[in-house]
């Protein structure tokens, strides 16, 4: 009788171990079976056994890409799509500097692909969807009942209101927040908006250039040092959405898609300043942001770009993924997630693109 | 030499295999780190020197060490008494308590950060009422808190193991001679478990310094070393972040070596 509890424990530990090991086997078997049936069912050459497709994408593309992944894996059994979400610039640096391989790269700023990857790491890019800057809030946000497209900057000015944006050095959503706020000055005819909201609370500086364009200069991240009573800054928007959810901040400059995907309420800003419309591209270009690494970005409509990096291990499968992204099912996913697709997609470096994609372009 | 003498000339396959595995383990860690460190020193010594002279870099590394130290002090204050109770007494739900204390080790750091922000944020369960007195988000207390949360289990567990290794009869002997419990604890039990607690403290401190995911959620500012490394990687790329990483490793490595050397012969009572 004395030995029994010991034996019982041993057996239960063994059982747990066996169960874990078993789970692994079952998973493998399932995959093998589906690939077997796949080989018979379809002559699709690209869909091989146990292949993986690595996709690096901007954080704001996480939800639509998750849906695309499900769709793609359903169409190509046996293929495992592995997604890595990060800031757009970071995603690109993982390829260009850390030497990681990605089959598909999707950036929240279309312009980053030609500027950071061409010609060494990619030779074409396609603009496939748009987005818009908004001000997200929740039912708990202070003055959430009063805020609208005409008074938002006055509400943000109130001393007991805290708001957030991502680091302009790291994330396009961050420098776009600066652009929107600068553009608000001339739109609302109030030259103190940017000063009151951002300049006086951070180490960011601002000058007007000779040609009339506004230039926001972002110092090294440790020198941005925002006033913690007013502004919350993080390198990624994900970290800020959780801060908005917990009530740490009242308002958050973010993409409309993110607000819709998280179920946040949001204030729509006028199209003249919210970087959403190709019609106002000239107006957007009146503001520039210089990041600490010296790179200067000019205001432009928010357009998502995709490419297949040159170091892709599985370029054929990648082309199929991009095809799905640009075709009808992909467009539908992007409509549902508040990121209107650009149809047909606009490409740079068309002659270098996989042939099967050409019919989906302008 | 001693081993060879006692085992005479007999070849022990077990010792051979274990030694080989030790070599694999060592090389795994050593190659990964030394490749980075020596790569930095030989390819770009200038960058390392510049990093060491940069005020932001130095203050972030100092902040990491300092906040980690504060977290370790708090962990000692909480973990030593907790470890004593867990080592000496049985009570209903003890297993549950022990399991819950271990949870911070397995929780993904981002999740830990979100949980901390929810509770200690300016509108959180504890942070809310304390607003106006102490600020956690984007401030030193938040950093210490996040470090404490992820590293506390190391101290609590090693203190518990330390106290368990002390025979309760020694305590009883002291008490039977008239010492009150606090005296027996302070002069008998605590010194005998000092090495366990010291090793636990070093682990706690190390774990606190290396923490990034939980800290960055609750406090991006002031920037600790890992936050600055991550930020430099995002803003400039690998070549700007590596010198800081190497510097952080070198600083912590030298501190660990010093602690190990100083504490090598350190035990107040010889138990053998």
Describe the protein's architecture and organization.
The complex is a heterodimer of chains A (362) and B (272). With 362 residues, chain A is of the alpha/beta class. Chain A has two domains: 49-130 and 303-360, 3-Layer(aba) Sandwich (D-Maltodextrin-Binding Protein, domain 2); 133-298, Periplasmic binding protein-like II (D-Maltodextrin-Binding Protein, domain 2, 3-Layer(aba) Sandwich). Chain A is 38% helix and 20% strand. A six-stranded mixed β-sheet of chain A has the order 2-1-3-14-4-15. In chain A, strand 12 and strand 13 form a beta hairpin. In chain A, helix 2 (62-75) runs antiparallel to helix 13 (328-336). Chain A is globular. Residues 26-48 of chain A have low confidence and may be disordered. Chain B is built from 14 helices and no strands. Chain B is mainly alpha-helical and 272 residues long. In chain B, helix 6 (109-120) crosses helix 8 (140-164) and helix 8 packs antiparallel against helix 11. Mean pLDDT of chain B is 87; it is low at 1-5. Chain B is globular and about 65 Å long. Chain B has one domain (59-263): Orthogonal Bundle (MetI-like fold). In chain B, 79% of the residues lie in helices and 0% in strands. Classes of the chains: A alpha/beta (362), B mainly alpha (272). The A-B interface holds A 87, 89-90, 93, 96-98, 140, 162, 167, 169-171, 220-223, 225-226, 228, 232-235, 239, 242-243, 246-248, 291-293 and B 56, 60, 114, 117-118, 121-124, 135, 137-139, 216-217, 220-223, 228, 230-239.
């Amino acid at each position: 009788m004395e030995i029994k509890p010991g034996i019982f424990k041993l057996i239960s530990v063994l059982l747990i171990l066996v169960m874990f090991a078993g789970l692994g086997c079952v998973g493998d078997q399932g995959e093998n079976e589906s690939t077997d049936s796949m080989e018979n069912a379809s002559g699709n050459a690209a869909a091989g056994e146990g292949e993986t497709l690595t996709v690096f994408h901007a954080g704001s593309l996480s939800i639509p890409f998750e849906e695309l992944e499900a769709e793609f894996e359903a169409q190509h059994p046996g293929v495992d799509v592995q997604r890595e979400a990060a800031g757009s610039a970071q995603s690109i640096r993982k390829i260009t500097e850390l030497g990681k391989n990605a089959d598909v790269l999707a950036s929240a700023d279309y312009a980053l692909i030609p500027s950071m990857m061409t010609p060494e790491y990619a030779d074409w890019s396609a603009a496939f969807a748009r987005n818009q800057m908004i001000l997200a809030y929740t039912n708990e946000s202070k003055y959430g009942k009063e805020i609208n497209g005409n008074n938002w900057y006055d509400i943000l000015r109130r001393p007991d209101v805290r708001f957030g944006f991502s680091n302009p050095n790291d994330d396009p959503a961050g420098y776009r927040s600066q652009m929107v706020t600068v553009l608000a000055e001339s739109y609302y005819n109030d030259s103190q908006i940017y000063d009151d909201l951002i300049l006086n609370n951070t180490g960011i500086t601002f000058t007007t250039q000779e040609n009339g364009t506004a230039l926001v200069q972002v110092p090294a991240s440790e020198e941005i040092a925002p006033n913690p009573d007013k502004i919350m800054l993080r390198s990624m928007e994900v970290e800020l959405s959780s801060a908005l959810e917990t009530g740490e901040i009242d308002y958050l400059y973010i993409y409309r898609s993110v607000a819709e995907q998280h179920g946040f309420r949001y204030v729509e800003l006028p199209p003249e300043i919210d970087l959403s419309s190709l019609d106002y591209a000239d107006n957007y270009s009146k503001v520039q942001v210089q990041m600490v690494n010296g790179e200067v970005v000019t205001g432009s409509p928010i357009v998502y770009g995709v490419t297949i990096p040159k170091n892709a291990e599985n370029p054929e499968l990648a082309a199929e993924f991009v095809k799905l992204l640009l075709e009808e099912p992909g467009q539908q996913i992007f409509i549902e997630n508040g990121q209107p697709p650009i149809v047909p997609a606009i490409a740079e470096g068309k002659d270098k693109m996989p042939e099967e994609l050409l019919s989906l372009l302008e | 030499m001693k081993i060879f003498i006692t085992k005479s000339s007999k070849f022990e396959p077990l010792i051979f295999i274990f030694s080989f595995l030790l070599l694999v383990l060592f090389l795994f860690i050593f190659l990964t780190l030394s490749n980075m460190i020596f790569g930095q020193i030989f390819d770009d010594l200038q960058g390392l020197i510049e990093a060491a002279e940069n005020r932001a870099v130095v203050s972030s590394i100092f902040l990491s060490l300092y906040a980690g130290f504060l977290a370790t002090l708090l962990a000692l204050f909480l973990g030593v008494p907790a470890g004593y109770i867990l080592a000496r007494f049985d009570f209903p739900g003890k297993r549950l308590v022990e399991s819950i204390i271990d949870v911070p080790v397995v929780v993904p750091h981002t999740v830990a950060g979100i949980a901390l922000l929810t509770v200690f944020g300016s509108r959180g369960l504890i942070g809310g009422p304390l607003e106006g007195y102490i600020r956690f988000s984007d401030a030193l207390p938040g950093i210490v808190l996040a470090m404490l949360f992820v590293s506390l289990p190391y101290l609590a567990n090693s203190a518990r193991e330390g106290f368990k290794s002390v025979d309760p009869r020694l305590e009883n002997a002291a008490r039977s001679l008239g010492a009150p419990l606090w005296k027996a604890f302070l002069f008998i039990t605590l010194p005998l478990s000092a090495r366990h607690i010291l090793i636990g403290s070093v682990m706690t401190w190390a774990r606190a310094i290396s923490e990034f995911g939980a800290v960055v959620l609750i406090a991006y500012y002031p920037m600790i070393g890992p936050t600055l490394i991550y930020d430099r990687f995002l803003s400039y790329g690998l070549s700007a972040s590596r010198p800081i990483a190497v510097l952080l490793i070198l600083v912590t490595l030298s501190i660990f070596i010093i602690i190990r050397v100083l504490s090598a012969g350190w035990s107040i009572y010889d138990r053998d």
